[in-house]
Write a structure and sequence with these properties.
By secondary structure, the chain is of the alpha/beta class. It has a domain at 6-192 and 227-257 and 297-317: NAD(P)-binding Rossmann-like Domain (Rossmann fold, 3-Layer(aba) Sandwich). Helices cover 43% and strands 17% of the residues. The protein is built from twelve helices and twelve strands. It has a seven-stranded parallel beta sheet, sandwiched between helices. It has a three-stranded mixed beta sheet with strand order 7-9-11. It has a two-stranded parallel sheet with strand order 8-12. The longest helix has 23 residues, at 99-121. The termini are far apart. Bound molecules: nicotinamide-adenine-dinucleotide and 2'deoxy-thymidine-5'-diphospho-alpha-D-glucose. Nicotinamide-adenine-dinucleotide (NAD) is lined by residues 11-12, 14-18, 38-41, 43-44, 64-66, 86-90, 105, 109, 133, 135, 164, 187, 189-190, 196.
Length: 354
């Protein structure tokens, strides 16, 4: 095997955001070995990385982050100097159905990785870093006014966000107790190609394509701050290489949308791309029972990463959404492969039996 200058372990690299991060690092840093450790749960898909899977600086390992023996063996075999930790159970609705899986992967999995990093690196922390990819949901829910800053106290409201908050606390505790060098970023809602169609944007697109009702929770009044996934991947690259160890950076699109207005927008762009009469897809919108404990509004103040590291979101929303819808149109096979019986079973439980 070629000798590499550096080795980075990326967890959850076969998922939505992880695959964009892996692609960016593998192509931008050919002298760095990128190891992608992913369990390939329902959300992990190696088809997301088909274009780079043969690169000599890319190695995929199928495995569970809670499997300490496996993680240890990777550190024994490769000189891992950094971990970029994305592996997680990531869907709020699934966390309401089954919180335990979220504790297992998001909390125990993170602590397992932290233990291995601490033990493997303790003799020389120089040049080492554990980078926790977290979410704005740890800050709780905003009213009509205000923004989440890095100083906003944690106030998680769903089993998902409670598990991510817990993991973030452990990362900081390992920094404080063992001096483990770390970084944390808390990002707002991502959208773009390769997102599993359980989240609002890809689910809406998939239902438009299949003339299925589009489920909008409650009155569609909840607000999210949307960021194109490639802009998030660029931020992760910048923070990993230039961020101050022990610091937290918020990442957001400065792009707030009420769910119902976003769904209207998706319908209109899709009608245009599909050559359907304007207004056709809006007829699919169906208001359904609200999510339990549904956070009203998330909005990120990203001035710290903008001012200190010079990051900016680059993709205008209309452009990103049009590209995303077009990607799903061009990749129907990708959709067909993941829409297995398990997806239908989840869909039935979440939307048809309530
Ligand atoms: P995703 O659900 O698309 O992908 C998660 C990946 O982790 C999958 O490939 C899955 O197979 C893998 N995985 C799950 N459990 C595992 C385990 N026990 N061991 C190894 N691999 C496992 O998630 P995503 O939307 O790409 O989110 C990635 C990360 O970014 C998560 O940590 C999430 O909390 C965070 N985040 C997501 C968003 C968003 O809008 N999607 C926003 C902010 C932060
Ligand atoms: O804010 C960052 C978070 O964004 C990430 O940490 C999570 O991993 C990611 O899943 C996302 O969480 P949300 O709960 O905000 O995303 P979701 O796409 O599930 O929902 C977005 C909004 O749309 C939310 O207000 C709920 C609503 N919704 C969602 C679905 C799936 C609907 O109205 N109908 C739906 O069918």
């Amino acid at each position: 095997m070629k000798k590499f200058d550096d080795t980075i372990l990326i967890t959850g690299g076969a998922g939505f955001i992880g695959s964009h991060v892996v692609r960016l690092f593998v192509t931008k840093y050919p002298e760095t070995l990128i190891i992608n450790l992913d369990k390939l749960t329902y959300a992990g898909n190696l088809e997301n990385l088909k274009d780079i899977e043969d690169r000599e600086n890319y190695l995929f390992i199928r495995g569970d982050i809670t499997d300490e023996k496996l993680v240890l063996s990777l550190f024994d075999k490769y000189p891992v100097s950094g971990v970029i930790h994305l592996a997680a159970e990531s869907h709020v609705d699934r966390s309401i159905i089954n919180p335990i899986t979220f504790i297992r992967t998001n909390v125990i999995g993170t602590v397992t990785l932290l233990n291995v990093c601490r033990d493997a690196w303790k003799d020389n922390y120089k040049g080492k870093c554990f980078y926790q990819i977290s979410t704005d949901e740890v800050y709780g829910s905003l009213g009509a006014e205000g923004y989440f800053t890095e100083e906003t106290p944690y106030d998680p409201q769903s089993p998902y966000s409670a598990s991510k908050a817990s993991a973030d606390h452990f990362v900081r505790a390992y920094g404080n107790t063992y001096a483990l060098p770390y970084l944390i970023t808390n990002c707002s809602n991502n959208y773009g190609p390769n997102q599993f169609p359980e989240k609002l944007i890809p689910l809406t697109i998939n239902n438009i394509l299949n003339n299925r009702p589009i489920p909008v929770y409650g009155k569609g009044e909840n607000i999210r701050d949307w960021l194109y996934v490639v802009d998030h991947a660029r931020a992760i690259d910048l923070v990993y290489h230039k961020g101050q160890k022990g610091e937290t950076y918020n990442i957001g699109g400065n792009n707030e949308w009420k769910n119902i207005d976003l769904v209207y927008k998706l319908c209109d762009i899709a009608d245009h791309l599909l050559g359907r009469e304007n207004g056709t897809s809006r007829k699919l919108i169906t208001f359904v029972k609200d999510r339990a404990g549904h956070d009203l509004r998330y909005a990120i103040d990203s001035s710290k990463i903008r001012n200190q590291l010079g990051w900016l979101p680059e993709t205008p929303f209309d452009k990103g959404l049009t590209y995303t819808i077009q990607w799903y149109l061009n990749n129907q096979e990708w959709l067909q492969h993941i829409l297995t019986g398990a997806y239908e079973k989840y869909y039935e439980q979440q939307y048809l039996k309530r």
